[in-house]
Amino acid sequence: MRALLQRVLEAKVVVDGQVTGEINHGILVFLGLGKDDNFEKGKKLIDKILKYRFFDDEQGKMGWNVSQADGGLLLVSQFTLMAQTQKGLRPDFGPAMPPSEAKALYEQLVDYAKSQFKNVQTGIFAADMKVHLVNDGPVTFNLEIE
């Protein structure tokens, strides 16, 4: 399971001209699910994301998590994060979880995130999403749970 986190000043997801999720400052999370991933791994990852300190505190250091920074969380499913890219010139999506399983797990993780944090927005699983963001810093981290 992989998550690409971007600290943003604002972010939104648009599907068919409609905004499906939008936050002001906070974390935009692109979430990739692999064949061996499960809800327990996902809970650990969501908990880590919510506790991860990469917002500036009073001293200007990365000391605050998203809650302390009064930010939002925008979760976007992105199977391409699971691609193997070491060989050749074309990504291999074999490690990604099959779509029907991934959708169910993604929805469970969204529900879990919403039970743990007040401001959670989302994209739409497997939709053609247009993601708009203003990266803050830029600050981007890749988190993995195995």
UniProtKB/TrEMBL annotation:
- GO terms for biological process? D-amino acid catabolic process
What this protein catalyses is:
a D-aminoacyl-tRNA + H2O = a tRNA + a D-alpha-amino acid + H(+); glycyl-tRNA(Ala) + H2O = tRNA(Ala) + glycine + H(+)
At the top of the EC hierarchy, this enzyme's class is: hydrolase
Q: Which UniProt keywords apply?
A: Cytoplasm, Hydrolase, RNA-binding, tRNA-binding
- Please indicate which superkingdom the organism of origin belongs to: Bacteria
A molecular function annotated in GO for this UniProt entry is: tRNA binding
| One Pfam family hit | Tyr_Deacylase
The record's Gene Ontology cellular component field reads:
cytoplasm
Q: Does the keyword Cell membrane apply?
A: no
Give the location in the cell. Answer: Cytoplasm
Motif Gly-cisPro motif, important for rejection of L-amino acids, residue range(s) on this chain: 137-138
- CDD domains of this UniProt entry? Dtyr_deacylase
Q: Which InterPro entries match?
A: Daa-tRNA_deacyls_DTD, DTD-like_sf
What are the EC numbers? Answer: 3.1.1.96, 3.1.1.-
What HAMAP family does the record tag this protein with? Deacylase_Dtd
| Domain comment, as recorded | A Gly-cisPro motif from one monomer fits into the active site of the other monomer to allow specific chiral rejection of L-amino acids.
Quaternary structure and partners: Homodimer.
Q: Which family does it belong to?
A: Belongs to the DTD family.
Say what the protein does. Answer: An aminoacyl-tRNA editing enzyme that deacylates mischarged D-aminoacyl-tRNAs. Also deacylates mischarged glycyl-tRNA(Ala), protecting cells against glycine mischarging by AlaRS. Acts via tRNA-based rather than protein-based catalysis; rejects L-amino acids rather than detecting D-amino acids in the active site. By recycling D-aminoacyl-tRNA to D-amino acids and free tRNA molecules, this enzyme counteracts the toxicity associated with the formation of D-aminoacyl-tRNA entities in vivo and helps enforce protein L-homochirality.
Q: What is this protein called?
A: D-aminoacyl-tRNA deacylase
